[in-house]
Design goal:
Distance between the termini: 25 Å
Number of helices: 10
Order of helices and strands: EEEHEEHEHHHEHEHEEHHHEE
Shape: globular
Structural class: alpha/beta
Strand content: 15-25%
Length: 328
C-alpha cells in the first residue's frame, strides 16, 4: 500500500490507564494496558474490520485513533499528518475529516434535540454556511440515510433503533469526513435491521468514497463489509489478512477459535467441521500473561509461548500473524 493510498496509519499504538487507590491520596497500584502495541494501515475508500472479544481494546483503539483518548505511546498518522500529540487547536479542523458512529443508538443522541438539530449541530459547531444553508444541508443528509423529510422535527424517542442509527450516521456525514470509525454500530439492533444498516454503510462508501474502521465482534458482519480484517486479543493484534484469506484459512489459534464459534447454516457441514476448544477466561489487562497473551488458553502452546511475546510477522501477500507456530 503506497503512501498516497494510505489514509490512516497506526504504529505501535499504546493506551495505558493507571489504576489508583486511596480516598485522599491517590496512589498508583497498577496499569491497565488496554491497547499495547497495535499497528495497522487503512487505505482510502476501504474498510478495515477490527474484531475480537469484548474487552480486548477495540473501542479504545477507535477512540485513540480519533484522539478522543490520548495515546500513551506510538504514532497515529492521518492523511499523511502525525496527530499523535496534536493539541486541541490543531485537532479542531481535522475533526471535520474524521467522525464516529457509536454503538448505542439510544444513548448517543440528545433526547432534547430534534433530528434536524442533531444532524445540523456539527455544521453549527464548525460555523459552516448560513442558517439557511445549514437547514438545506441537514435536509439533504436526512434524505441521504433513508429518512423522510417530515421526520426532521421529531425527537429521538419517536424512532426505532434502526432509524436512530441512521440519524447517527447522518450526523457523522455532516462535515463530509474521509474516515468514519464505526464502533459496533449494529450490535444493538435486530438482525433484520443490521442488514439494512450494513447495506447503507456500503452504499454511502460507494457514493462518497468513505473509509471505515469497522469495530465489531460479529464475524459475519465483518466478513460482509470489510476488505481486510485485523484480529485483536487483550490489547494486541494477533492476525491481519484480506477477508477471503482469513476466513478460508485462519492461522492464529485464537482466530481459528473465533471462526469455529460462528455457526454454519447447514447441520451436515456443522457436524463435520472441527471446533477448537479455548479453555479458561480472558486474563485481566491489568496483569496480562507473560509472553504470548493467548498462551494460557491456547491448545497448541509451546514453552516459548510463555516466555517470549511473538512479533506480528509479515508472511507476504497481505498476511501477518503473531504466533510462534508460524515462526522461522
Amino acid at each position: 500500500m503506497s503512501a498516497a493510498e494510505t489514509l490512516l496509519e497506526v504504529e505501535d499504538l499504546r493506551v495505558h490507564f493507571p489504576v489508583l487507590r486511596g480516598i485522599v491520596f491517590h496512589r498508583p497500584v497498577g496499569t491497565i494496558k488496554a491497547v499495547d502495541g497495535v499497528g495497522f494501515r487503512l487505505a482510502r475508500g476501504k474498510t478495515l474490520g477490527l474484531v475480537g472479544e469484548s474487552g480486548c481494546g477495540k473501542s479504545t483503539t477507535g477512540l485513540a485513533v480519533l484522539r478522543m483518548l490520548t495515546p500513551s505511546g506510538g504514532a497515529i498518522r492521518f492523511e499523511g499528518r502525525d496527530i499523535t500529540q496534536a493539541d486541541a487547536d490543531t485537532l479542531r479542523p481535522l475533526r471535520r475529516r474524521m467522525q464516529m458512529v457509536y454503538q448505542d443508538p439510544y444513548g448517543s443522541l440528545n433526547p432534547r434535540m430534534t433530528v434536524a438539530d442533531i444532524v445540523g449541530e456539527p455544521l453549527a459547531v464548525h460555523d459552516i454556511g448560513t442558517p439557511a444553508e445549514r437547514r438545506a444541508a441537514t435536509a439533504e443528509l436526512i434524505a441521504l440515510v433513508g429518512l423522510k423529510p417530515d421526520m426532521a422535527d421529531r425527537y429521538p424517542h419517536e424512532f426505532s433503533g434502526g432509524q436512530r442509527q441512521r440519524i447517527g450516521i447522518a450526523r457523522a456525514l455532516a462535515l463530509r469526513p474521509s474516515l468514519i470509525v464505526c464502533d459496533e454500530p449494529v450490535s444493538a439492533l435486530d438482525v433484520s435491521i443490521q442488514a439494512q444498516i450494513v447495506n447503507l454503510f456500503e452504499d454511502l462508501q460507494t457514493r462518497l468514497g468513505l473509509s471505515y474502521l469497522f469495530i465489531a465482534h460479529d464475524l459475519a458482519v465483518v466478513r460482509h463489509i470489510s476488505e481486510r480484517v485485523a484480529v485483536m486479543y487483550l490489547g494486541r493484534i494477533v492476525e491481519t489478512a484480506d477477508r477471503r484469506d482469513l476466513y478460508k484459512a485462519p492461522l492464529h489459534p485464537y482466530t481459528q477459535a473465533l471462526l469455529a464459534a460462528v455457526p454454519i447454516p447447514s447441520p451436515a457441514l456443522e457436524a463435520q467441521r472441527a471446533h477448537p476448544v479455548v479453555a479458561g477466561e480472558v486474563p485481566s489487562p491489568m496483569n496480562p500473561p507473560r509472553g504470548c497473551h493467548f498462551h494460557p488458553r491456547c491448545p497448541h502452546a509451546k514453552p516459548v509461548c510463555s516466555e517470549t511475546a511473538p512479533a506480528l510477522r509479515d508472511l507476504g501477500q497481505g498476511r501477518a500473524v503473531a504466533c510462534h507456530l508460524h515462526g522461522d
